[in-house]
Write a structure and sequence with these properties.
By secondary structure, the protein is mainly α. The protein contains one helix and two strands. The protein has a two-stranded antiparallel sheet with strand order 1-2.
């Protein structure tokens, strides 16, 4: 079966499995992004509450 090279991992993925394979990478990417974004959001609230010099 012909395959498509995966942009994320470089492996040759059969056409029949490519969509599933891509979805797994996307899930991993989304999970990593959510974990990364959860931390700055907690810290981002603090500077907004500090008094500003006028």
């Amino acid at each position: 079966e012909e395959g498509i090279p995966c942009e994320s991992c470089g492996n040759l993925i059969p056409f029949s499995e490519f969509e599933k394979h891509n979805a797994e990478h996307q899930r991993d990417i989304d999970n990593a992004r959510a974990a990364r974004e959860a931390q700055p959001k907690a810290n981002a609230k603090q500077p907004a509450t500090q008094p500003q010099d006028v």
